[in-house]
Write a structure and sequence with these properties.
By secondary structure, the chain is an alpha/beta fold. Helices cover about 45% and strands about 10% of the residues. It has 15 helices and 7 strands. Strands 3-2-1-4-5-6-7 form a 7-stranded mixed beta sheet, with helices on both faces. The chain starts with 9 loop residues before the first helix and ends with a helix. The mean pLDDT is about 95.
């Protein structure tokens, strides 16, 4: 057993984990510091995250990892109050289109400040970075450019690879393991702008309340952590969705159905996407009003949750109605066009 006064090493952490012992928050933070500093080997990283996954990650372990990752990140300087992120974990294995990215743009159209954090695809065909690039958005904004974009348009995108350079030390074990690990959970917990409102889609149905509790520990004021019964890391329109809602420091867990949100239930096959170009076309079609049915409804469900968490709606159903108005009025499409234009101008001027 590791003495609490002895600095933890990758070897001692692995010994604890394979013995089904939990790491303390400080131990977890120290382990992540070792990884982020490039002092751990790929084999050690793979061993620790695999042992964590098999044991089951605790609130303190996830919090410690997230705190260390935040400390090693680049940051966007902006007012954090009322700032929303829609970054999810990915890892569902279902190749849907980019629902959280669409929802972020609609939430911004509704007047909520959005600092969208995301990456290229890890398990699907198109991550948020991939589809935004296909839509014409310049994704490689510096912190200063992202801050200016947020001021001008009310939404910015922060490309995870640029804001978390220390994660390169874990890239080989992550890629070669090919399984979901604690790293999947860390992206949504490490927003570079310090967003205090979040909608997080989670691949693990059993961990929604744990992740919501971690968000509270990290200073997030309002959040919904969602995972559907049919395996989506989104609010589903094909099955009930488990929600762990953080509000006023308390976490409440419940289920919602598409019908409760005033939406039609569709087979999950009707929300599947493709490569970045295909998904970009779906999003343009939703925003232009040409794409209805399942694509529109699943975006309304998730955008409605964003608007609710962002404080612009009194309930989820009200949020869904506002989201529909943002599409039907053309404001969502205008917001996307504004993001495309402004990121292009910023990268041209600053670049």
């Amino acid at each position: 057993m590791t003495n609490s006064l002895t600095p933890i090493t990758m070897q001692s952490a692995l010994t604890k984990l394979i013995g089904s012992e939990h790491l303390s928050r400080e131990e977890a933070r120290s382990v992540m510091d070792i990884i982020m500093s490039g002092e751990a080997t790929p084999v050690q990283i793979a061993g620790v995250v695999t042992a964590l996954r098999m044991k089951g990650e605790t609130k303190d372990e996830i919090t410690g990892f997230a705190q260390a990752m935040r400390a090693h990140s680049s940051h966007v300087q902006t007012e954090q109050e009322g700032l929303l992120d829609t970054c999810g974990t990915g890892g569902s294995g279902i190749h849907k289109f980019n629902i959280s990215t669409s929802s972020a743009i609609i939430a911004a159209a509704a007047g909520i400040r959005v600092a969208k954090h995301g990456n290229r695809a890890m398990s699907g065909k198109a991550g948020s970075a991939d589809v935004l690039e296909a839509l014409g958005v310049q994704i490689t904004l510096t912190p200063e450019q992202a801050e200016e974009c947020l001021k001008q348009v009310g939404i910015c995108f922060m490309f995870a690879q640029l804001y978390h350079p220390s994660l390169r030390h874990a890239s080989v074990p992550r890629r070669e393991l090919g399984i979901r690990t604690i790293f999947n959970m860390l992206g949504p917990l490490t927003n570079p702008a310090g967003a205090d409102r979040q909608l997080i889609g989670l691949y693990d149905y059993k961990k929604t309340d744990t992740v919501a509790s971690v968000l509270a520990e990290l200073g997030v004021k309002r959040a919904m952590v969602v995972s559907s019964n049919d395996g989506l890391d989104e609010i589903s329109i094909s099955a009930p969705t488990r929600v762990s809602e953080l509000r006023s420091g308390e976490v409440r867990t419940y289920e919602i159905t598409p019908e409760e949100l005033g939406l039609t239930r569709y087979p999950i096959s009707e929300v599947l996407g493709g490569d970045p170009a295909v998904n970009a076309a779906i999003i343009r079609g939703i925003f232009s009003g040409e794409q209805c049915g399942a694509y529109r409804d699943i975006v309304l469900a998730n955008a409605g949750a964003c608007i609710y968490v962002g404080g612009a709606a009194a309930s989820l159903t009200d949020g869904v109605k506002i989201a529909a108005d943002m599409i039907d009025s053309g404001l969502a499409e205008q917001k996307l066009l504004g993001l495309i234009q402004t990121t292009g101008e910023l990268t041209h001027v600053f670049g």
